Amino acid sequence: MNEAKRRELQAVAHQLRCNVLEMIGIGKAGHWGGSSSLAETLAVLYFHAMRVDRADPKNPERDRLLLSKGHAALIQYAALCELGYFPREELKRVKSLDGLLQGHPDLTVPGIEAVTGSLGQGLSLGVGMALALRLDKNPARVFVIMGDGEQSEGQLWEAAMAASNFKLDNLTAFLDWNKIQATGRTEDIFSIPALDAKWRAFGWDVLTVDGHDVAAIAGGIEQARAVRGRPALVILDTVKGKGVSFAEDVATYHNGIFDETRFTQAMQELAARKEAV
C-alpha cells in the first residue's frame, strides 16, 4: 500500500470515529468501546478491500459483511453513511422511534446483511452465506467480524468446525481482540488463551495484525484472500475505546455515557488527531 492510500484510509477511519461520537452524543448510552476499536478495519473493508456497489447495495456480486458483535453497529452505520447508503441526518436519530438506525443491525438499513447481536451466531450466518454463494458460483466473498468476549459461545465453535469441514475459502473472519468486554477484562471473565492456536486446530488459516494499522489490515486481508481450501481468520490486535484517551482500555465505555464535559473533550481529541492524519 502506498503512502497516499494509507493516509486516505486513515482519514476514513478518523471520520468513522467522529460519526460514532456524533451518534452517541451527550447523555445517551452508546457502544463507543467496541465500535472505535474497529474503525480502521471498517475503513479498509468498505473503502479498499470489499466489492461494494454504492449505487446498488443489493448487487448480487457484492461482498457481504456481517457484524457478529452486533452491539458495535454504530461503526458499521458510520461506514454505510460515508458510502451514501442513507442520509447523514439519520446519524442524529440513532435508537429513536422515528429513526432508521437501531441499536443492533437491522435489515431495514441498506447495506446490512443480517440481524445480529445475539453473540455467537454471526459466524453461522456467514457459513450459510458462503455455502450459498459457492453453490451459485458467485465470486462474492463473506466477511464476519467477531468480538473476543464472543469466543466463549459454543455455537461459534460449531460454525468454525463447519467452515473448515466445507473448505470455505470464500469466508474470512475477523476477531476484534480488544481484550475487554462489557464488565471487565475478557481474561478475568472467561479466559480463552492461545486463540490463534485454537483456531488453527479447528482447521483455519490464522494471522494476527495490528488492528489500528490500515496497511497491516489490508495486507492481512490479501493474505486471507489467497488461502485455498480452508477459511481464514485475521486476529485484530486492538485497543477498546481507541481514539479518546479517557475511554481507551476502559470497560466503562463498552456501552458508556458521555456527559457534556467528556463529550467536548472527546471531540477535541478527535479533532487534534485529524490534524495528525
Q: How would you characterize this protein structure?
A:
β4 and β5 form a beta hairpin. 47% of the residues are buried. α1 runs antiparallel to α10 and α3 runs parallel beside α4. The chain is globular. A five-stranded parallel beta sheet has the order 1-2-3-7-6, with helices on both faces. It starts with a helix and ends with a helix. The protein is built from ten helices and seven strands. The longest helix has 22 residues. The protein is an alpha/beta fold and 277 residues long. It has a single domain, classed as Thiamin diphosphate (ThDP)-binding fold, Pyr/PP domains (Rossmann fold, 3-Layer(aba) Sandwich), CATH 3.40.50.
Notable characteristics:
277 residues, alpha/beta, Rossmann fold, two-stranded antiparallel ribbon, 7 strands
In a few lines, what is going on in this structure?
With 277 residues, this protein is of the alpha/beta class.
